[in-house]
Amino acid sequence: MSQPIPRVVILKTGSTYPSIKEQFGDFDEWFVRGLSPRLDITVLDTEAGELPTDPTDWDGIVVTGSPAMVSDREPWSENAAKWLARAVDKAVPLLGVCYGHQLLAHALGGEVGYHPFGRESGTRDVEMLASAQDDPLFRDFPGSFRAQLTHKQSVLRLPQGAVLLGRNEFEPHQAFRMGTCAWGVQFHPEFSEAIMRAYLGVQAPDLEREGFDSSAMIDSVTGAPEASALLERFSILVTKNKTG
After folding, report:
1. pLDDT given at position 173
2. Which residue, of 43, 145, 190, 203, has the greatest Cβ tally within 10 A?
3. CA-CA-CA-CA torsion sign (226, 108, 35, 187)
4. Low-confidence residues of the chain, pLDDT below 70?
5. Active site residue 181
6. In this predicted structure, what is the pLDDT of residue 4?
7. For the chain, what percentages of helix, strand and coil (3-state, to nearest 5) are there?
8. In the CATH hierarchy, which fold is given to the domain comprising 7-243?
């Protein structure tokens, strides 16, 4: 007898730039590409107010990035934060990415705001800490890996009880876990190399105004296969958690 297919909900918290959406699709589509095809995936437009009812109706939860800012505390975002806190309390496997990472931290009592040194964008190195060695999601992850990043806000203070898993020179909170199975990552496992280059292309005027060399940043973009593998790892974790 075949096992039931795990049900995963993607909480979509915004949309990408129109030119990037036209070429590559939107945030939710990038996550669907990276997650296992053996999942039953539902996308809800959380920015438009769509939220599931009971978190335990789902075997896994993914929260996307967003051009919005957690510190603005928009009503839809605050409602989503309360829902995420319930999901963590119920121990439903959860992965928050960029805005989702920050929203998870905020939901559980952490502090989110603008990074004091501005923007982090492009392909960067992320260092995993010793705490990741026995983490259910990051176990056997490389000690250092490349990842795609673009953000102005950060988790300035982790929630009480959070386990810090990863960092880099710019961002002290690149990855953390709350409880047994809720993770936040500041980097973008759903970004391809081409999407990262496209982001830097759109951001180029702002990057130049902020003192960056946008051409050099675009040229330095590389693939980030270890970071991208996180979505398949999360898919496996969700499936194992469901089947016991």
Report:
1. 98
2. 190
3. negative
4. 1-2
5. no
6. 85
7. 40, 25, 35
8. Rossmann fold (3.40.50)
**Taking the domains of the chain in order of start, what are their residue ranges?**
7-243
In what helix (H) or strand (E) does residue 177 lie, and over which residues does it extend? strand 175-178
Active-site residue (options: 47, 78, 188, 210): 188
Q: Evaluate whether 121 touches 204 at the Cβ level (below 8 Å).
A: no
Position 2 scores a pLDDT of 62
* DSSP category for residue 55: G
> Is 190 annotated in the active site?
yes
- Catalytic pick among 47, 120, 171, 190: 190
